[in-house]
Amino acid sequence: MDIRIAAAQSRSISGDIAGNIQEHLKFIDQAHARAVDLIVFPELSLTGYELESLSRSAIRADDCLLDPLANASQKYGMVIVVGLPLLSLSKLPHIASLVFFPDGSREIYAKAFLHLGEEAFAAPSNSPPLVINVNGFSCALAICADTAYPSHLQAVAGECDLYLASMLVSDFGFPIDAENLRSSAFRHRVGVLMANHAARSGNFDSAGRSSFWSAEGCLVEQVPGRGNYLLVMSYSSGDWSGECIQVE
Fold it and tell me: Which segments constitute the CN hydrolase domain (predicted)?
């Protein structure tokens, strides 16, 4: 089995879902040009990490505002994972990943483990990681703080090949988060893809440095720093290889 996956290290415009969708489409076009099967964007990529306006920005998964992403998924035959605040059954929204599939369907994963302080603005999910199938690879989704809890990946470790993490990681937090992801890759024998923000979002200066670790816990490829980049990882003949492409 072969697969090409990508982390979109993208910059988010604060609170502007429509504008951020247009930015996302630039990355998706670049990914299509490189025959990518699945692309993953950072945590809250469609709004930025704006906790205080999370409830005002929250939308439904079937909102027509999101249709350009659904159309791109169908047009390119690509699975697209974006981050957004999603309306929930509680008074607070979920921090969520929304997955667009080429058949027109959509699936939701809502963040299970919240960072300290997020509980005032978001509701945690009680659901296990969403596992999706892409080209015969089982892929589990995670959002930032999820990756700090071994029980998150452990819940599905026996049934997945890849762990896809949408993140906002600062320079200060990067060494810890990167080690958590590396050790998860090695412990559970899964490939781990981390998509980080390209620039400051909310009150956090992102470190960039989106990365991929192999199931042996080896760092295969990493974006050199901040800025808009597409990290493309290819699996063929039993090996991973990667490249970093700047996106204007």
Answer: 3-237
